[in-house]
Amino acid sequence: MKLLTVNCGSTSIKFKLYRMPEEVVLAVGKxxxxxxxxxxxxxxxxxxxxxxxxxxxxxxxxxLELIIKKLSDSFRGVIKDKSEIKAIxxxxxxxxxxxxxxxxxxxxxxxxxxxxxxxxxxxxxxxxTGIKVCREIFGSTxxxxxxxxxxxxxxxxxxxxxxxxxDYYEKYRIRKYGFHGIAYxxxxxxxxxxLNRALKDLKVVAIMLGGGSSxxxxxxxxxxxxxxxxxxxxxxxxxxxSGDMDPAIITFLMKKxxxxxxxxxEIINQKSGLLGLSGKYKDFKDIEKGVLEGDPDCIRAxxxxxxxxxxxxxxYAAAMNGIDAVVIAGGIGENSSLTRQCIFEDMDFLGIIVDxxxxxxxxxxxxISSNSSRVKVLVVRLDEEIVIARETFNLIK
Length: 397
Known about the structure:
Elements: E1 2-8, E2 13-19, E3 24-32, E4 39-45, E5 51-55, H1 60-71, E6 85-92, E7 103-104, H2 107-115, H3 124-138, E8 142-147, H4 157-160, H5 166-172, H6 181-195, E9 203-209, E10 213-219, E11 222-226, H7 248-257, H8 261-270, H9 273-278, H10 284-292, H11 296-320, E12 325-329, H12 331-335, H13 337-344, H14 356-361, E13 366-367, E14 376-379, H15 384-396
């Protein structure tokens, strides 16, 4: 059976076509800069290794129609027509606590997604657009929503409630929801495979480091706390997001700088984090290059970034009364040995000892902890699409 996974951003579509249940990838690609006049298509399959072509893709409908055209191309394609695709799995960032499991998409789910757009305004509207367009283009083909926050559904009230009037929770459902759940699903499953142990026997700290960064405590197979909260802005600071800060800073700046709520939202989500602290860069590669060259602005941002992560590891060790393993992934987590070394330095009191040679010379996946480390530290190469494909296949069987 052929199954398509779709991840729609505000100006992008990422996709993979699988043959299930064998989990064979038939084609993979993405369209970037949708609606901006200079869209770029990347398409990879066995029949054609890779191409990057400029198109003018006006909207997500045009983008998905272009993807179908490439998938069914008589020379480069891997299907005869769209009818071969029996299901489509969609990543959905946050639907709040209104559902507790991944779902086949019907009108009820569409309504819930529309009501939840304000919970993830940068992601949910784009996810919803992709779903609606796929329902129009593919007709009766089943669409499945795989929710990023479902992984965190077991977080207890003591961890997800904020210290604000409880009425706001009851009226507006203001609480910690958590994100990156699809990534964490993959990460902890790979950890269990590497350790050859069941997740129900493990206390794990999972660290997702990329443009968006978060950290999660997974106790006996369940998420019990996570750094991102009501929105993705809480927790670790990121490329442009502030992460944790004193909430009174917001009203202070509003008075001092004559800011409105939209201005503050832009500062928190678009002008802070690595960009804000360095005053120069939001791309971590530029930050790391600056660190190696001794740039004090980059060093300031880098040191603060690593410190926040280290602090959360300690907090989650306390919350779970110990750690058996740490698993790390994401563009930064997978590729920056410097960051990993900085995070795990001087953590032997927790039983975490990283082998410098293993860490520096890691090529793909593997343990970077030393043989004497009581806590195993694993780096994995993230594959969120296979999680979406598996969940979709299991739901439609």
